[in-house]
Amino acid sequence: MSFFEIDGSEKSGSGTILRYSATLSSITKKSLHLFNIRQKREKKGLRPQHLKALEACTEITKGSLKNAYVGSDEIFYTPGNKIFSGNYSFDIGTAGSTTMLASAIIPVLLFADKPSTIELTGGLFQDFAPAAHHLEHIVLPLLKRMNIDISLEILKPGYVPTGGGKIKLKINPIKKNILPICLEKQGSLKNIKGISLSSNLKEGEVSKRMAISFQKELENMNLNIKSDIELIYDEKADQKGASLTCWIETDTGCIIGMDVAGKIGRTSENIGKTVAKRLVQDFNLGATLDRYTADQLILYAAIAKGTSKYIIPKMTEHIESNLWLIQKFLNAKYDLQDNLLTIHGTN
């Protein structure tokens, strides 16, 4: 059997290459030999969340997986010949990111014959991964415009280090084609919305303080617009935790988002200030998507029918990695000029 070879130390050298290689392997039915896994990360090799992404793709396609264990730096994955719809449940077993696990599974189940549900257990709000609210309120509404119908429900928040959070997604298969997304003009700022969540921290009014700090920082940057932020005080999570997700909507349909999770030593005021600064930074760069959504839409644009165009705020290692992967697996063509990213869909 011949394997499609991917060197996991290329580009970002991160888990992104592992996850999306498994996704693209499942969709294209190409057997995958992935080596040098996560060589540019402090903890090299597979971590529990990466292993779970491989196991999920294997289960969904009824494929085979070899040499996959925590710490492994080389795997062999052969997807099955069919993508099976169903009701799936995957528990990372740690506070590893459920949203990153979801990003590996969602594109695969788009090619099933019937709707599927997946329940994922792990972390929902942490550093170095999109918040569940970012996926729900920024990424999924944009995918909806691409004819991709997915709903997300947060069953229970989960944070580092305990995890234990749960999200449930319903994924409807593609009926015709994935449509391209075209966001070539940023337009004018229409409104700013957000969700300020804290768990088991009501006495400290953490949700309120994050929202107030966010608004104050907007005013400090001479952005005189009143943000609409929903305050949530959760009591279901296994531990204390917090997250602030905010997004700008423009009159041309752009959604630009940013999120920061709570952490020991990180004050509510610092969280609010940081989200505001990073959000406005991406907006002021003239982008039509934020730096995180920009890399997540690349795979979908590559399997769409037609040409997608959007303005990225800046090149990131994950954008670079995902562009490299769609070229390797799909021979997808793309062009980047003055931060306008053009991706030619392959369907």
Could you describe the 3D structure shown?
- It comes from marine sediment metagenome.
- Keywords: Ligase, Nucleotide-binding.
- This is RNA 3'-terminal phosphate cyclase domain-containing protein.
- Residues 12-335 form the RNA 3'-terminal phosphate cyclase domain.
- The chain has 347 residues and is of the alpha/beta class.
- The protein has three domains: 1-82, UDP-n-acetylglucosamine1-carboxyvinyl-transferase, Chain (Alpha-beta prism), CATH 3.65.10.10; 83-175, UDP-n-acetylglucosamine1-carboxyvinyl-transferase, Chain (Alpha-beta prism), CATH 3.65.10; 185-284, 2-Layer Sandwich (Dihydrodipicolinate Reductase, domain 2).
- The chain has nine helices and 16 strands.
- The protein has helices at 15-28, 48-61, 98-109, 132-144, 206-220, 268-284, 291-296, 298-302, 317-330, and strands at 4-7, 32-35, 64-66, 74-78, 87-91, 116-122, 150-156, 165-171, 182-183, 189-199, 228-234, 241-250, 255-261, 307-311, 333-337, 340-344.
- It has a four-stranded mixed β-sheet with strand order 1-2-4-3, covered by helices on one side. The chain has a four-stranded mixed β-sheet with strand order 5-6-8-7, covered by helices on one side.
- Strand 15 (333-337) and strand 16 form a beta hairpin.
- The longest helix has 17 residues, at 268-284.
- It starts with a strand and ends with a strand.
